[in-house]
């Protein structure tokens, strides 16, 4: 019998505005640290998507580590500028902003001096250190733009970004369909496997594991419109996850925060289904269902 992966399950963020006003948190949970501690009592994984918009301060990630128990894991999204997203100048550290440019202007990675890009990577790794030191760091998610089509230049960009992420484990999210059309799908997966990077599977695509942990993302929306998963859909997804988990060591499952606590509710339902199949996600999630 194949061994079954440790399945960590959580959501993409614990503090977005819709969630804070949804009633999912008890009224007694008032501070940022208390909210994170409460979330960590229900799930043992979260994606820190705030890192996509700005590199968090070291003091911030120290607080994340202090507010969560042993066994809790943060998957951290890399700063969007580093994966090719146009980014508001005001999101950069003040000392790395070009002089005389309006803070609302959006810059691309190639418009910054290479030494500034290197410094951004250095500061990202500094921000990750407290989580890594506390045993809380999972993967660094490299979410590439949806318009990044497959090609030699794009491949070099992806591989360079994976390399700069080292020694932290990288998970790569590629959304342009050209990466997975026809025979290119297998070549893309082999590329990630050869560079020991996890492929970020979407709930709407075939599931595959190129490195550990395997990572599956439930988008929770279609065409930008939030959706709620039906019981049948979640049952089907739970079966697919169980199949992928066979023979793996660890899998991360993230439900995107889409509206007013729905991701948390869907995550708890999915955890219950996995537990009912004999694939218990973990102690914290089992307390939540």
TrEMBL record:
InterPro entries: DUF72, UPF0759_sf. It comes from the Bacteria. Gene3D superfamilies: Protein of unknown function UPF0759 (3.20.20.410). This is DUF72 domain-containing protein. It comes from Dactylosporangium salmoneum.
């Amino acid at each position: 019998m194949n061994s079954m992966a440790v399945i960590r399950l959580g959501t993409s963020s614990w503090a977005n505005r819709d969630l804070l006003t949804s009633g999912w948190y008890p009224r007694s949970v008032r501070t940022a640290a208390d909210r994170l501690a409460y979330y960590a009592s229900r799930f043992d994984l979260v994606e820190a998507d705030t890192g996509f918009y700005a590199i968090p301060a070291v003091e911030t990630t120290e607080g994340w580590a202090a507010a969560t128990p042993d066994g809790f894991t943060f998957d951290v999204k890399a700063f969007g500028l580093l994966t090719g997203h146009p980014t508001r100048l005001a999101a950069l550290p003040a000392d790395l902003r070009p002089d005389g440019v309006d803070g609302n202007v959006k810059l691309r990675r190639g418009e910054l001096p290479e030494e500034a890009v290197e410094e951004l990577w250095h500061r990202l790794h500094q921000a990750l250190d407290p989580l890594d030191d506390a045993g809380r760091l999972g993967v660094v998610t490299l979410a590439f733009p949806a318009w990044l089509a497959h090609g030699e230049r794009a491949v070099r960009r992806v591989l360079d970004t994976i390399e700069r992420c080292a020694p932290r484990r990288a998970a790569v999210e590629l959304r342009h369909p050209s990466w997975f059309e026809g025979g290119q799908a297998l070549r893309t997966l082999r590329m990630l496997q050869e560079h020991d990077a996890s492929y970020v599977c979407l709930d709407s695509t075939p599931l595959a594991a190129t490195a550990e942990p395997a990572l599956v993302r439930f988008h929770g929306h279609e065409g930008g419109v939030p959706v709620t998963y039906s019981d049948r859909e979640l049952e089907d997804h739970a079966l697919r996850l169980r199949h992928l988990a066979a023979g793996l060591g660890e899998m991360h499952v993230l439900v995107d925060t889409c509206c007013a606590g729905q991701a948390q509710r869907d995550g708890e339902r999915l955890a219950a289904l996995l537990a009912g199949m004999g694939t218990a996600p973990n102690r914290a999630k089992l307390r939540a269902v």
